[in-house]
Structures
1.
Amino acid sequence: MQSCRPLNFMVRKLITFAAFLFLTASLQAQTADEIVAQYIEARGGLAKIKSVKTECVTGTISFGADAAGPFLVERKRPLMMHMEIHINGQLLIRTYDGKSSGWTYNPFTGNPNVQPMSADEVRNIFDEADFDGPFVDYKAKGNQIEFVDKEEILGKAAYKVKLTNKSGDVSNFYFDAASHLLLKWEGDRKLADKNVPWETFFHDYREQNGLKYPFLIESDALGTNQTQKITADKIEVNIPIEDSHFGKPNPPAPPPSDAPAPPAELPKPN
């Protein structure tokens, strides 16, 4: 019987270790859920977020010193989107009907026609059209979240949460430990058919209709000179927008012949 004691001792140790791992994983998941719940509440609360049926944001976007202009983004439940960006006398348009079809008019490619979005573009437009964000009903959206660590971002203590979406794409979000609002996002974005690491910082939160929005969003592609700055002038919610506005757009009238030349390459906005 003496020979069985080391084995029993080892079994008890393994069970204790497994239980510890399970407990640690559960605590981390719960912490991530708590961080997300605090963020949703800091924005204005789940009920207020879900009460928004339409959203219209207007302002200025820049992709560097030589490419800047006004933009408009309209979104409507469920997942409809209409985006316009004016750059150097040219107009870029992207729309999605919230179901299965999207279209792009991009004069910077030299194509004068409206083009249907590819299957990959339609699949990836979900994040742009979802104005609730990836954390509201994240499980139903197929997202997984995990608390990573506590770090300092922009001189503030922040909680780092890793999000893995249903396609397996991983990104990190940093939440202000004091205000619980989002400070930073980091992940990969397509740039010239390559995955490039990007980081985005959120500033100047203001309250509109009981919800807090960042009015300044700054992004850059790490290791490149690609930057993006979005400055919102006005954010309107629950204004009437016809569903037809999210269908196939009509090409705008051609620009005057003396319009400035467009930039050689224009990255997609966030």
2.
Amino acid sequence: METTLTLEGVGVTRAGVTILDDIDLEVGRGEVVGVTGPNGTGKTTLLRVASTLLSADRGSVTVLGAAAATPAGRRVRPRIGLVGHHAAISPHLTLAENLRFHADLSGIDHSLVGVALAAVGLAGAADRSAHAASAGMARRTDLARVIMADPGLLLLDEPDAGLDDDAIGLVDALVARTRRRGGGVLIVSHDAARIGALCDRVVRIAQGRLVTS
């Protein structure tokens, strides 16, 4: 299977503490992989490594065909969609301005901003300041940012956090859209039932190591 993400023997140590230890993981094209486990076991660190935002101390990371710790790895970053714990938006901009800013960074046409906001139910709130938006609206805007980018690799960290019940389906739709376009998806969550329903396979992280669930 052609992979969108390959981790081989990946380790991360900070302040003498091993956070990730000898991680081997692949995410194929059109595949949705889940990682579950309790808080503090390295799930978010794993996503940061996969996104190329954090360099591994040991092992190799290949993302969308490029080695992460190289100029080619930096060039694929616009094709990686990361939705973290906190919405990646500025409180000093409107929702639409936030998306236009991200569009400029990624070389995306501004015409997609309105389309993405409409897809998450925020067409009527485009000019609202992010500072005045609810946590749920901020989370929807973050999902719109990723919808607009159509990533080849989608990384989701506790994706339902901050979303109301009506918006949970947006996460499902984003995962399905990425899979349909041949992208890979890696989801981390402590909610084993939810992640099991979304993913083709699930692994569990314990003491910085992955084990098959």
3.
Amino acid sequence: MYPRDFFDTYWRTDLRDEVFVAMPFHDEFAQVWEMAVRPAIEDDSGTGLRARRVDASILAGSIITDILDGIAHSRLILADISVASEGRWKGQRNGNVMYEVGLAHAVRQSTEILLIRSDDEAVNFDIAQINVHRYPLHDLDRTRVQLSQLVVDVLRQIHQEKSLKVQRAVDILDADTIRYLADYAVHGPFAGPDPKTMGETLVAISNRAALARLQQLGIIRANIGIVKGQTAFVLTAFGAAVATCIGIKGAAQPGAPVDAPQAARP
């Protein structure tokens, strides 16, 4: 699948508890994966994240989709751009890994991408200004400790930046959007009657406007088909953080249906 088609069609704001790992599948990198990268993420970091690695040696069919899905929906992308000493990419940085790095830089925040390498060779011009962390290839115990701390530090930085974004979103919420979240973010799909009075109609119009603003801010997204005959909405992970920030207790989990009141019907 062409990357632009995937990101336009399938990308969602909700992220999985994974670290997408882009690294060569040649034998020389097998121990780095098994003895350092995977245990650093899954066993040592204390984050509860799973390391996910896709064999990028076959850039076709579902493999491409798996790569795009991992780049779009993992909490963190870790890429080993080390120069290969064997195989097809001997003396070079693996082209498939660099392709994945390029995709990640195009669609994710810079703080969500962690680059590592084991060599001292010059780095490609396109990423020369990006911090690339060097690890000791011949001391994988130390590499494991180093990578675990890097993952923790990067996730902390991501959390700090997202906290600022949540606060900025809260700062621009108006009374109607706050009321809408407070009234509906804790319930399941709405199945009530259409508005019949002028007062109910005015409330419905206000709800429509609030829905539109919340969608524009990325706090909720439409999910067609949850409730027959009407459009339901789900809180995004960002939306759940906003709801918590403004003190809404019992807000639905990300992806769980948010009420679609009369005003939200098609």
